[in-house]
């Protein structure tokens, strides 16, 4: 008798095969979803690690002498930051991070970093996959930098002078002496240009060995800062004028894409430089600094040289505390003219709504008011002009005097002036200018806080350079 196939049994066998195949596909699909999610998490972590490594390399390229040492420093920092941001064994992944490529190009440094990671899969193994490979890449470009470093060396800082000097020297090390350009200025009665900025080649004179074309006396910035003597009053505008002038002395075609003035002071301006009118005009026809103070109606004195820290002007230009007796009753010029008699860039009077100014110098008291107000207005105006030309202004203030109200105008403080200069987000409404570069102001209440403040400004500058 002939055996016949049972249709039901055959169908059951086919269903089992289909179910088995479907389970493989289903497990593979579920595995794809799970393992892809895992791969996405690892890739996100890898991206963050590569970004951090690239930025760290760009910041650390300032360390070392010569391209080889700077490249090694950058790559070492990149490895350190990658390891810190992608821990060994993270979700079972095995990373590979080759040293980033560091390219130097006429003041611009490009960092190209990349990494891969093998992620062990789970359910996707049923489809024949054992690992999921993910990758990430990042490029950071550190723009070249032109910077004017303007330092107050007035007598009020004498007690903390060593800390000011060491903090300033540390600040300089945050920049690349071979790629960045820098000018160094210090001021009290007048302003001294210690190191001029290089107008064609790059780099700055950090030490004497760098200095043949970096300063008039062949000395580097560390040498100049190390010899600072803290003496005299506060001619802030003269320091600011020199800082802006240094950056603008570079021809347009040679200027860096990032231009910064870093301004450090512990007090409010109280000294004004210009050509003043004497009762006997022949007594003095050269510019000089007329000093007051910022705490009370003191006796004005002068004149001092505008390009020295505390040297009296020659001949009858210097009359000491008798200066007002020898000045014309309307001795203040209409325009700030200390560097060019024909300058009409910054008006001295009528001043501003907050600080009105006249040219009245008929008495000590009136001279005190007008010189004090004019010196403050002038500093803010110079900073605003620098920002309108695309410069960032970063300010650092030291001590509690900055937060103390002083001067002829009620409510006026040194801190508010420094915030106006930097155009900070919390600057007084009278000076806030959202269309201009926004800088940072850092207040060091005492000498201990000085180094952290300089670190903060350096980090902010390096951040915007990338």
Automatic annotation (TrEMBL):
<feature type="domain" description="VWFA">
    <location>
        <begin position="146"/>
        <end position="270"/>
    </location>
</feature>
<dbReference type="InterPro" id="IPR002035">
    <property type="entry name" value="VWF_A"/>
</dbReference>
<dbReference type="InterPro" id="IPR036465">
    <property type="entry name" value="vWFA_dom_sf"/>
</dbReference>
<dbReference type="InterPro" id="IPR028087">
    <property type="entry name" value="Tad_N"/>
</dbReference>
<protein>
    <submittedName>
        <fullName>VWA domain-containing protein</fullName>
    </submittedName>
</protein>
<dbReference type="Pfam" id="PF13400">
    <property type="entry name" value="Tad"/>
</dbReference>
């Amino acid at each position: 008798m002939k055996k016949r196939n049972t249709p039901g049994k055959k169908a059951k066998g086919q269903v089992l095969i289909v179910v088995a195949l479907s389970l493989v596909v289903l497990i593979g699909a579920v595995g794809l979803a799970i393992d892809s999610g895992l791969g996405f998490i690892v890739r996100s972590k890898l991206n963050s690690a590569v970004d951090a490594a690239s930025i760290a390399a760009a910041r650390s390229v300032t360390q070392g002498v010569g391209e080889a040492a700077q490249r090694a420093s950058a790559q070492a920092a990149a490895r350190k930051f990658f390891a810190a941001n992608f821990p060994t064994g993270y979700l079972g992944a095995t990373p590979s991070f080759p040293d980033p490529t560091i390219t130097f190009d006429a003041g611009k440094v490009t960092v190209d970093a990349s990494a891969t990671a093998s992620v062990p899969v789970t359910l996707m193994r049923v489809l024949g996959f054992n690992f999921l490979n993910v990758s990430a890449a990042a490029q950071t470009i550190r723009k070249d930098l032109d910077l004017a470093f303007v330092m107050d060396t007035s007598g009020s800082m004498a007690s903390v002078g060593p800390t000011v000097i060491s903090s300033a020297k540390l600040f300089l090390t945050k920049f690349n002496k071979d790629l960045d350009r820098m000018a160094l200025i210090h001021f009290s009665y007048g302003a001294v240009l210690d190191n001029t900025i290089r107008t064609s080649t790059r780099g700055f004179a950090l030490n004497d060995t760098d200095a043949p074309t970096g300063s008039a006396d062949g000395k580097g910035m560390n040498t100049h800062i190390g010899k600072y003597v803290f003496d005299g009053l506060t001619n802030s505008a003269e320091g600011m004028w020199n800082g802006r002038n240094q950056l603008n002395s570079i021809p347009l075609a040679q200027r860096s894409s990032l231009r910064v003035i870093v301004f450090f002071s512990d007090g409010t301006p109280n000294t004004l430089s210009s050509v003043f009118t004497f009762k006997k005009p022949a007594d003095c026809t050269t510019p000089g600094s007329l000093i007051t103070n910022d705490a009370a109606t003191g006796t004005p004195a002068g004149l001092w040289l505008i390009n020295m820290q505390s040297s009296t002007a020659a001949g009858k230009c210097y009359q000491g505390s008798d200066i007002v007796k020898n000045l014309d009753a309307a001795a203040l010029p209409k325009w700030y003219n200390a560097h060019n008699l024909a300058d009409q860039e910054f008006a001295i009077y009528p001043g501003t709504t907050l600080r009105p100014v006249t040219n009245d110098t008929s008495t000590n008291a009136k001279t005190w008011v007008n010189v004090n107000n004019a010196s403050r207005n002038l500093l803010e105006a110079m900073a605003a002009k620098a920002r309108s030309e695309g410069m960032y202004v970063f300010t650092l203030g030291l001590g509690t005097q900055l937060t103390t109200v002083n001067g002829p105008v009620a409510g006026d403080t040194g801190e508010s002036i420094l915030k106006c200069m930097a155009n900070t987000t919390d600057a007084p409404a009278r000076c806030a200018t959202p269309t201009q570069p926004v800088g940072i102001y850092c207040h060091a209440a005492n000498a201990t806080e000085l180094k952290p403040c300089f670190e903060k400004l350096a980090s902010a500058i390096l951040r915007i350079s990338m």
